[in-house]
Amino acid sequence: MLKYATFCMVLLVPFYVYAASDEDVRELRAQIEQLQQASHAAPVGAGTFNPAISLILSGTYGQFTQNPSVPITGFARSANNNDYSSGFSLKESELGLSANIDPQFRGEATLALAPEGGVSVENAIVQTTTLGNGLNFKMGRFFSGLGYLNEQHAHAWDFVDQPLVYRTFWDNQLGEDGVQLKWLAPTDTFVEVGAEIGRGRGFPGTDRQKNGSGAGVLFAHVGDDIGVSSSWRAGFSVHQTRRENAVSTVGTVNNSFTGDSKTAGLDFIWKYAPNGNVKETNFKLLGEYFRRKENGLLTYDTVSANITDSYTDTQSGWYVQSVYQFMSRWRTALRYDQLDSGTAQIGALNSANVISNYGFTPKRTTLMLDFNPSEFSRLRLQVAQDKSRQGLTDHQLFLQYVMSLGAHGAHQF
């Protein structure tokens, strides 16, 4: 509006000069300069004066041949949150608000509306807009920048669910209360490095009331274009946190672990679109690998025997998936994921009580087809053969809808 007002006043100047004195003309010019300065200082973009508001609605129909609540074999200390429901189910809705605060800061919040009622804060951040030199600082509650999929909200996933390694290692996603600093290098090749420190509330950390930080993340990404049709990005991440009295259940026995948890990961994505036109056809290949080492004390049978001794375990997991848009509005995708529970080093006192090697490899194969009537709507069919529980092959079927109302920001590369 300020620019339009300035433009109109400039048009009126020639007609005004004939009837105005020199003093009137000088005053008019001063007013125009003030309007121009105000227009340059005003923040721009979505929600400059009012918050941009969006609402994501989603639901599923699920069908299984095994009980989906049975945990993954060999990962008792993991969250094992599959978020599956048989039959029809309303999924979590997302209410998003974002706006510039002033020329230096912008704010964004995503509220999760649970189907059974209640509201939780998924993201609530304030970030800088004027640091310059490729720097960006963010504070609040956010999804960590580690890996590739972690920062994506559920409505942007290419499948109904996350890969097994995200489900077991991060309880689907690593969220944190803390601060993040990113630096984008001034180079033709994409180079980004970042660091985070936080409370440690996100799994596998333990939310504790203490001074200082309870978790930290370092990550780096590089990428580039290959001609006009292809682009790629590769990354490396490390995460460190502390677990305090993390209770796990094996059969009818409760165990407790206290110790350090360190995870390193690699991620890679390649995208292809003929002549750079992603509207009609495009292809995406994505993979990630994570390796976690936990070292500390394990208490066996906290209710009865209560035996504590040393415990060290190194576990890993990976997935690779491809997504192909074979015609406008239609996509298909294939994913394979696998876990390795590792061989634990168990103290002598618990060597006869705790399994050190399950001798089993959890894995799963998933096929997806979705139809996107517009950029705001998606209908999806997904089938999977899940062999992540020893002796229990689960054939899964999902139908899903994801609908977006209102303004919504662009998704990451």
Description:
The chain folds into two domains: 42 residues; 306 residues, Porin (Beta Barrel), CATH 2.40.160.10. By secondary structure, it is mainly beta. It is 10% helix and 53% strand. The N terminus is likely disordered. The two termini are 33 Å apart. The longest helix is centred in the N-terminal third of the chain and has 20 residues. 27% of the residues are buried. The protein has a 16-stranded antiparallel β-barrel. The chain is globular and about 100 Å long. The chain has three helices and 18 strands.
Helix content: 10-25%
User: Can you count the beta strands?
Assistant: 18
- Rg from alpha-carbon coordinates: 26 Å
Helix/strand-derived category reads mainly beta
Low-confidence stretches: 1-20, 38-47
Instruction: Give the strand line-up of the largest sheet.
Output: 1-3-4-5-6-7-8-9-10-11-12-13-14-16-17-18
**Can you identify the CATH class of the largest domain?**
Mainly Beta
CATH superfamily of the largest domain: Porin
What would you say the CATH architecture of the largest domain is?
Answer: Beta Barrel
What are the secondary-structure elements, in order, as H or E? HHEEEEEEHEEEEEEEEEEEE
Q: How many domains make up the 3D coordinates?
A: 2
* Beta-strand residue percentage: over 45%
